Amino acid sequence: MAADKNIEEGLEFIPKFDNNGLITAIAQDSTTGQILMVAYMNKEALDMTIKTGFATYYSRSRKELWKKGVQSGHVQKVEQILVDCDQDCLILKVSVDEGQCHVGYNSCFYRAVNKTHPDALVFTAQKTYDPNEAYKK
Amino acid sequence: MAADKNIEEGLEFIPKFDNNGLITAIAQDSTTGQILMVAYMNKEALDMTIKTGFATYYSRSRKELWKKGVQSGHVQKVEQILVDCDQDCLILKVSVDEGQCHVGYNSCFYRAVNKTHPDALVFTAQKTYDPNEAYKK
User: Fold this and answer.
1) Which of A38, A87, A96, B71 has the smallest CB count inside 10 Å?
2) Across the interface, do B37 and A84 touch by the CB < 8 Å criterion?
3) Is B129 part of any domain?
4) In the beta sheet, which residues pair with residue A59?
5) Do the chains contact at B13 and A82, CB–CB below 8 Å?
6) How many domains does chain A have?
7) In a domain, A34, yes or no
8) Are the beta carbons of B13 and A119 closer than 8 angstroms?
9) Is residue B103 part of a domain?
10) What is the dihedral of CA B107, B54, B18, B35, to 10 degrees?
11) Pick from B118, B120, B53, B51: which is nearest to B80 by CA?
C-alpha cells in the first residue's frame, strides 16, 4: 500500500513505464465492454496513440512500434484512455470492427479454464474472420 | 506472429509466466463488464485461485501471496477464468461488492487522460467507500 498521493489522487498523468520502458495497455470495446486484447506501449507508442487517436503498441517480439490493424485492417479508434491508481496500467476504450485477435476471433480471450479439469480449456467463442485472408501478403 | 499452434489453438492450459514467474491477471466485474483492477499471479497464486474460487494474487511490492479482500473485506468470487491467445494474460470474471480499489473507488481505473491536455487527467468516478475505515488496523 505504498502510496504516492500525487500519483494516486492527483490529476497529473505520470504513466509509470517498467524496467523495459513499457506499460500494460488493455483494449476494451467501448460499446460492449468486452476485453479485446492486452498489449504493451513504450512512451513513443503512447504518444502516437494520443496524437493519432488510433491504438499503437510496441511489439516485444518484433521490437518495433505497431499500429494495430496496419496489416489486417482491424484498427482500434481510441475513445478514451483510463489509467489505474498507481498509473502503471492503461485501458483503451476503443471502437472496432469484428475480429481483433490475429487467430481469427473477435477477442484474444476466446478460451476459459475448464472448471472441473483446470489443466484444460474450453472454447467460449467462434472465429469471426479468416486470418489467412487478412494477413496474406 | 510467432505462432505455437498448440498454445493458440489448443485446449491445454499452459499459462506462460514471465521471467519473474508472474502472469498478468485482469479482474473484470462479471455482471457489468467493468475492469476493476490489474494484478499479477505466480503459479501458487493461480493454483490457489482455482482451488478456492476466490482471487489470490502475488504482491510484487510485498513479495507475498495476497488474497484480495483479506484485509478490506472486498473479496473477488471467481466465476470464470479466460486466457488469451498466447496464454500470457488472464481475465478473472468476478462477483464483487462495491469498492475494489484501495484508494476508495469501485475500480482502480477512476481517471481518464484529458483529451485536450493529455498530460492531465480527469476523474471519471466517485469514491464508493472510505479506505481509512476499511484498512484501519
Assistant:
1) B71
2) yes
3) no
4) A64
5) no
6) 1
7) yes
8) yes
9) no
10) -20
11) B53
